[in-house]
Design brief:
globular, 8 helices, 43% helix, 6 strands, alpha/beta, 15% strand, binds 3-methylbut-3-enyl trihydrogen diphosphate, binds magnesium ion, Undecaprenyl pyrophosphate synthetase, six-stranded parallel sheet
Length: 243
């Protein structure tokens, strides 16, 4: 059994760079997305082996609908097939899958696929895999505020947090973005307030276990202060207790 240094409890990843990976090989962009699914499978396994409790990945953003129609429909196809194919193994591996995002205007078949994957893995406890699909951080904050307003509840940071789409998990400790861009592109805007950010130049299909370990090592080299000063970090603090 391999031994790994302790991993952050919640890792979140912007899986970027599939299109460029394909372009470099003179392949259609969809070939990059297919390879991206392979990379995700490897990453899920690696995170589970390293004791990560929650892995959240950005699969399709609210803004990605505006890509060329053939890429959008191809991506839907790749995702739907991947969900159907991977669920039995995820169920066997103890992974609980959640889809996070706006389902209101999704095709009925897609909604059924997402619900089926969630139901089939609902009993699992080894690791939570949140797949952000038709997701945007702005959508999440707005839908959370709308829920509170509809119930006539006061909007506070705490109440809003409980209405967000990721209220079932702790906030991410480490947010990784592959593909070389240093931006969030509407990912986990609320939840990343105190996450450590790590940017990798590797394109997502090339992001492997070794790269994951480099990101985790970088995380361990950081000092998370949550607004405090270094000297306070060894002491008991309500700020740290909430983190
Ligand atoms: C990320 O890869 C996957 C999705 C956005 C669905 P891209 O498709 O954005 O790849 P690049 O950034 O064009 O290389
Ligand atoms: C973010 O990547 C979305 C996903 C990885 C699903 P994009 O490729 O859409 O982001 P931009 O356009 O470079 O900001
Ligand atoms: Mg991109």
């Amino acid at each position: 059994m391999a031994h790994f240094p302790p991993a952050p409890a919640h890792i979140a990843i912007v899986m970027d760079g599939n299109g460029r990976w394909a372009k470099r090989r003179y392949l259609p962009r969809l070939a990059g997305h297919r390879q991206g699914v392979e990379s995700l499978r490897r990453c899920v396994k690696a995170c589970a082996e390293r004791g990560v409790s929650v892995l959240t990945v950005f699969a399709f953003s609210s803004e990605n609908w505006s890509r060329p129609a053939d890429e959008v429909s191809g991506l839907m196809d790749v995702l739907a097939r991947a969900i159907g194919r991977e669920v039995p193994q995820l169920a066997r591996d103890g992974i609980r899958v959640h889809f996070v995002g706006d389902r209101t205007n999704l095709a009925a078949g897609m909604c059924e696929g997402l619900a089926h994957a969630e139901a089939e893995t609902a009993h699992n406890t080894r690791m939570v895999l949140n797949v952000c699909f038709n997701y945007g951080g702005r959508w999440d904050i707005a839908q959370a505020a709308a829920q509170l307003a509809a119930r006539g509840e006061a909007i506070t940071p705490e109440s809003l947090h409980t209405a967000t789409a990721l209220a079932h998990v702790r906030d991410p400790d480490l947010v990784i973005r592959t593909g070389g861009e240093m931006r969030l592109s509407n990912f986990l805007l609320w939840q990343s307030a105190y996450a450590e950010l790590y940017f990798s130049d590797k394109l997502w299909p090339d992001f492997d276990e070794a790269e994951l370990d480099v990101a985790i090592a970088a995380y361990h080299g950081r000092e998370r202060r949550f607004g405090l000063i270094s000297e306070q970090l060894d002491q008991e603090s309500p700020v740290l207790a909430r983190a």
